[in-house]
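Notebook B, p. 112. Complex prediction, attempt 2.
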Amino acid sequence: MSRIRSLLVAAAFLPFAACGDGPGKDSKTVSLYCALDQEHSETLVQLFEKETSIDVKTRFDTEASKTVGLVSSILDEAQRPRCDVFWNNELAHTVRLGQKGMLEPYVSPAAAAIPDRYKDKDGKWTGFAARARVLIVNTELVAPEEYPKSVWDLIDPKWKGKCAIAKPVTGTTLTHFTTLALKLGVESFARLTDGMKANDVVILASNGATMKEVASGKLHWAFTDTDDFHVALKKGHKVACVFPDQGENELGTMLIPNSVALIRGGPNPEAGKKLIDFIVSERVEAMLASAKSAQIPLRSEVQGPSEKQILKIGQFKEMPWDPAQTAQALASMSKRFESLFDR
Amino acid sequence: MLSRTITRLPLILGIAFIVLFVILPLVGMLAETFWGAEGFDLSPWSHLFEEARDRQAFFTSIQLGLACVAVALVLGGGHAWLCGTRDLPGWRVLGPLGVLPLALPPITIAMGWSDITVTKSFWFCAVLVGVAFAPFVAVMTARGLDTIDGRSYESALLSRGRTSAELLVLRSALPEILAGALFVFVFAVGEYGVPEFLTIKGKTWHTYSEAVFARWTRRATGSGMEDLVGPIVASVPLLVLVLFAMFVALLLRARATISGSFAPLPRRSLGALRVPALLLPVTYLGIGVIVPIVVMVRWAMGSTDVTEPMSFEVLRRTFERTFEQAGGDLRFTFLVAVLTTIVLVVIGPPLARSVAKRGILVQSLVAIPIAVPAVLLAVGFVKVYNRPELGPLYDRTFDFYDSAGIVVVAYGARFLPFAILTMLHAQRRVDPTLEEAALFGERGPLARVLHVRLPLILPALWSMACLVLVLALRELDTAVVLPAGNGTVVRRLSNVIHFGGEAMGGALGLMVFAGACALPVVTMLVTGKKMRSLS
Amino acid sequence: MVSIELQDLVFERRKGFRLGPISLTLGDGSRTALVGPSGCGKTTLLRCLAGLETPGSGSIRIGDRLVQGDGVHVPADKRRIGFVFQDGALWPHKTAMAHLRFVAPRLSRKDAKALLHAVGLEGRERRRPAQLSGGERQRLALARALAITPDVLVLDEPLASVDVHLRDELALLVRRLTEERALTLVVVTHDRDEALAMADDVVILREGHVVEQGAARDVLRAPRTSFAASFLCRASVWPAEAVADERGIDSLRTPFGTFERNGAPTGPVSVVVLPGEARIAAQDATNVARARVLRVLPRGDRALVTAEVAGRTIELFADASDTIDVGDTLTVELLGKPRFLVPDRRSGERVSSTKKNGDRS
């Protein structure tokens, strides 16, 4: 009887006893919220742990919620921050967190060689290893001389119903189209979106999806990110990558760097700074470039991805953009795009 | 005295659980919609259904719910009907297999089918979601048929003929069948994962759950009160809809017959249709289990990688790699699922006893945790259990917020409705005098619980445990928001597939399926019982 | 051996059902049947007595112990009551032996076996309820109730689910065991034969109140209400219409003629004919009524005739040699003076207590 009794009691308290070891207030642990894909970031984190003996507690996002899950968590946890370092695989949401007062300035000495345009002037965030917003083209369906070259190809009747973008309500596509809306101005942007509608541009849920549709030959080309393009290429699909809008009067290709930031009031700021130093280091940029995600290093001296189609910094014309302005407009644009691209 | 205290402990724990882990997070969330930066503010509510697309999405969700119900009735209900009343070849084996689609996360069913066909249409979605939840109809149809007195069928057959007799059977089983259908409706309108996934596949119509989720994504970047509490306000109509369906379902179940002494229904001959009739169970299990499993096996064998041909060698390597990379996640997920099950096994039955004494209105309120979008329930947990005031307590004891404990209780809160509703029905079937009879003796309350009450509800309790275990293994949305939920398998699964890791995704999916099947299958093999007490 | 005393007991349920106020005294060692139609409150009364329901007011004493009332509620397990439920309420997962050993852990295996033997379940120790027949199940329920060596044995419709031919046997068993163990017995039933087979005293309930109470043989011989007469004694009952006869005397009109009220109770009354108080009329009979034959059952050298008189049935005996057929018209003669009874008696008054066991012999 007493055995059953003790079992009953134990069962009742078991969940509470099953406590994980959370990040304590010592410099030996650090809490990282990481929006970069687990498969790519996990090995880097393990390397940091090995080298520094600092235990990293990493929390990843789901792809379905893009970066938003982690950003929401940081906001929801604001009353008692749990995260020390936020590693975002894009920039706008990090900037938005800074605008909401969630970030603690930290200028990492390790990021000195990263050009200033990729760093916050107040030191709230640091950009590194970027992805470019490129066109993925199915080489079996489109001849090289026919390759689309610009965002305006989306409204070229030649491609009616044959090209796609991800729905610009989350992720890099939201950042991209928000920036486009701001840069093109009301009239030009309306011309683009109206034209896209008339041209039956396919709206898919993610850049992974646009990549897959092109790789499988269902579509001729689509906007995607360089990492998605690289995945398709590595799987042996017949695809090519085009950096769009490289002409003299054209906007240039949008480059969206990873970003890392120290969270204000996080439990382990010192360890957090060490982690940031590691993440923005030249070595990590090089590793991210050589990994499956083929990120483009922001330091021109760092070896880029081995795949020649993914251009290095300086080899293409970048679209200049103001992250602060884009971040500010994200919510309203997302809402607007929700109905604008509702197909 | 000690014995009495121990007997009451589960109920006390259960009530404390509801207060701490259901009411507190939900009330906290709801209160937020009324208080903005400038005090009391009702404005977020004025935007409810303001946009035509929201109204359209709400309508679409209801349509999807109804379509899923139709699918579940035809396939799940048809499966149970054929296996329960006809001489279908292999009905003994096929019958219990009707619960199998429940062991697969709906998203894997959708992923599997998307791999081989175009799945973006409304009806395809309805078929996938309908089949994923059809086990509720299958199980409850089986139960409904079990409670029909075969003699009433025979008397109708003698007096009114075959058609009338069949109609009588249908009418008698109808309350249970409809209750099962309403459960399907509840799940289908709340389902987010599958419609979202099909959007990736080019679906262009939207459900209300997706609208709620879109608001949740804006919450991160927005700044106005409307942006911040928008998802909470938007989820209220869904909540009301689900609670209404639940109320009707419970009302119907309460009317269902409870078996007394009776003769079982005679098994009728299908005649020449005996073998062709197998098409229905094959279709049902094909859609819900076989195709997704085959696709996942193919993935694990490397079907999506064009650089190397599919082989068992690849399969072996995939499993090896999966164990290596996700072994920790697998262990964590099973630990959390088992602990969740233990919690609900302890508090479910006493809460069900307590709820059984209340009216159907109160009973349908039990459904709230499952009617609220999981993400929001979990955000409620963050709001309540990450309060700075709790810091000193966490420092002195352990950091509950950052522990597996919060995932266990959040899962517990989310699946509490299943625990209570399963036990509620089991409770109704137990003759109260069996427990009263134990009062006239020299045994204390604890002995009475262990020797009389527990054995009487044990089959239902075990089924409930199986159900909760399966659901906890599949859960994604709640885990996403909680820090310790990071280590769950389904979260990793949904990610690896997106990043081109179909091979590992397939392996993970198969492991979850195997894990989910293990307990019920072992039970069935050991006891030879069917899973009907599941309902 | 204990007595049971109920004082002003009232029990109310939400849906408008009300039991009581009931005051009753059941003598120590008495055997009492609570009888009445379905829904009259007899099971509720039994459950109040056993501690399964808590009455709203009133008190219950068992022996010299107050078990209910004045803020006292002694739980069921402390009342020393053995309860046999309708349908047995046996635990499907326990063997016959385990049933006994569970409620009475101090009962030795040998004693438990002896008890099972006493109720006629020898050799059935290891069987579960599903492996027992209906009668055996009820015997097991009885053994379980007796295992705790109770002062009072309480049975709720104990024979309802038992085959007719086994009922008498079981009833005798109950009588024997209660006598041997000097138990006070309370049995609830809606069946008159069952009541009479097990109990010496009866309490007749109707719509939550006691209509009549007393020794069964007294009630059978001289019921005081037409309800008791019809329910317990199988009497035929006709409402009697109050009229003034040609002389202006207060009279009552019945199917058997008009009689002076003289001595009959005031208010609405019925004329009651107990079995044997009427016969097929002789030629010069008075107090007669016309009857139509509904059924004729041969009974040895006689025939039991069921006939209809003024919309009610009456049973009469005829010689087997008489040629009476269904549909025939007869004249029925009332023997002796007509018996006028009030239809019911609201129990505001205290109903007389039953005799003590010792008084009965």
